Structure formats: C-alpha cells, structure tokens
C-alpha cells in the first residue's frame, strides 16, 4: 500500500508538470498535506528557521504562533508579542493585528503585519525584528507604511520581496486591489517618496482581491492573491489566483495574456470537498522546494479555519501547480 501511494504521487507530479500553461485543471485541486497537532490558523506565514524547525504566524491573538520540527506536527506557541504595542490602538480598539509575513535577511528575522478595522482603509503596516524568529523575541519598530481614508489603497496584508537589489512590499485589500512600494534597506520601512505601484484589481466593485504574495521562479515574478469572500466559515468563497511578470512592478498577466489589472489571473486553488475558502496564502522555501501555505474552513468541523500546506510544482511552461 505504501509503495502504491508513492507511485501514485510520482505519477501525479509528472502529469502536473506536463499540463499546459493554464489554471489548475478543473477537478484536480489537491487536498492539503496531512498535519497533526494544533491545526487552527488564519492567514499563515511559514518559515524554516536557520537553527532547524519551522514557525508559523497568523491572524489571531497578538499574532498567533505555531511551531513544528517536521512540518507535520504543529504545536501552539503563544503569540509573537506578549501585548500589543501602544500605537496599534490608533487603528482599532482591541489592538488586533492581521496577516503577518515573516522573512530573513541581514542576520535577522523580519515580521510585517497589518493593523486596521474591518471595512476601512485607515490602516497601517508595522514591522518588527527578532534574532531567532521565535515568539516572545520580537522587537517592534513601529509603522512601515500607512493608508488613510483619502487613499485609493489599503495598507494591509503585507508581503516582502527582494528584486533587482531592492526590497519591495506588496500589500492591499479591496480599495482598487493590490499595490507595491519600495522599502528602505536599512529601516525596512517605506523608502522616501516611493511611488505606489498598482499590480492587480478587478473590474467589478468591491474589487475583492487581497493578500498578495510574490515569488521569483526562473525569469518571472509570480503574484499570488486571494479573491472573493474571506472569513465567513463554510460560506467563504476565497480562492487563490496567480499571474506573472518579467519585472517586479508588473504588468502581471495570466496564461491567456490577460492582465491582473483587468481582472486576469489563473486559478491555482479553490474550495473542494471539506476544504472551503482556500486563501490567505503565502509561499516558503524548504530544502530547495516551494511550498504553499494557506487557510481553509473545515466543513466537517463547523467551518474552523485550519492550516493547509501543499507543495508547488512548476510546469514546463513555468506555471505553478499545487500538489
């Protein structure tokens, strides 16, 4: 039986790499990899630590933390911060942060996150650093970028990318969609007078695209984003789409050539079976492989949000496929 499963997995991976440069074939969406332990999570960001093991941060608590030694069994590890920094209360009454992003550079771990209130773009993206990446070790450095009610973008759902020797932060939710700014290398905050680039939107209000994440593969940059309705349990319609560009600032187009600024995007993963509302995604590297992390709402557990992990394979035409 074990050999049979292994052979099936190999054949599936081969077939995926031979698929044309189109969205994941209808009906082929994979279930998440089996995990154990603490599975509850929302908007996960995952990294393999330099000293071994994994940590995941998420929306909930004061940025809820999960740790694992093998990427399979996860343990609740409390929160990134013991208590909310005082400036968070400028953006909501509970000091509630959202949608973190963890990365490593310059000998430190960096954590970006959003503070806002539901339904407003009076929002801020904060930044913190840590020597180990583990909960309880973070030093907050305040606001990296903000948006206000007169802006046409929303400073939430941050994700860091390095390209062309510079640091870039993609972000956005509704309010005309996904945007990007350049960051100052030293501070990790918005570079002076940085333009706000527009990467993705939808032609129909309320422009329901959010949660960007950009990775480079080959000569292209790939923009992953969540579309439609989040945070409604089994009634969620979240799904993950992807497009690519040869420049970090775009334009990002799908496999048919349709720009993401015109509503384009190949469907990578959507709800199926018990796994409802797949989204809030990020991508992390582990031993030379790309992995997709996301949450889904478990239809067999009253819509509880749980951690989804799938390996990303790349087709011969250079498009990602969840496996």
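-> sequence recovered:
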């Amino acid at each position: 039986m074990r050999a049979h499963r292994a052979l099936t997995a190999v054949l599936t991976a081969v077939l995926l790499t031979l698929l044309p440069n189109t969205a994941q074939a209808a009906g082929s969406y994979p279930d998440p990899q089996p995990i154990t332990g603490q599975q509850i999570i929302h908007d996960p960001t995952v990294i393999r630590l330099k000293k071994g093991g994994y940590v995941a941060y998420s929306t909930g608590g004061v940025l809820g933390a999960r740790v694992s030694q093998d990427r399979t069994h996860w343990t609740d590890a409390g929160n990134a911060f013991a208590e909310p920094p005082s400036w968070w209360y400028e953006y909501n009454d509970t000091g509630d942060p959202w949608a973190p992003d963890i990365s490593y550079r310059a000998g430190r771990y960096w954590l970006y996150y959003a503070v806002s209130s539901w339904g407003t773009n009076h929002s801020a993206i904060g930044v913190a650093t840590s020597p180990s990446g583990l909960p309880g070790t973070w030093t907050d450095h305040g606001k990296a970028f903000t948006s206000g009610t007169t802006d046409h973008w929303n400073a939430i759902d941050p994700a860091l990318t390095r390209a062309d020797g510079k640091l870039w932060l993609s972000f956005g939710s509704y309010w005309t969609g996904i945007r990007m700014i350049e960051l100052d290398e030293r501070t990790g905050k918005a570079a002076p007078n940085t333009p706000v680039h527009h990467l993705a939107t939808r032609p129909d209000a309320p422009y329901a695209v959010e949660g960007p994440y950009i990775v480079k593969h080959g000569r292209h940059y790939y923009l992953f984003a969540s579309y439609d309705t989040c945070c409604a349990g089994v009634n969620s319609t979240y799904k993950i789409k992807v497009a690519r560009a040869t420049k970090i600032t775009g334009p990002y187009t799908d496999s048919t050539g349709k720009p993401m600024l015109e509503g384009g995007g190949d469907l990578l993963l959507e709800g199926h079976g018990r796994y409802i509302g797949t989204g809030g995604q990020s991508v992390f590297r582990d031993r030379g492989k790309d992995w997709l992390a996301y949450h889904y709402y478990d239809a067999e557990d009253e819509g509880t949000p749980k951690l989804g992990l799938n390996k990303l394979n790349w087709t011969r035409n250079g498009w990602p496929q969840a496996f």
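Residues 2-18 form the longest helix (17 residues).
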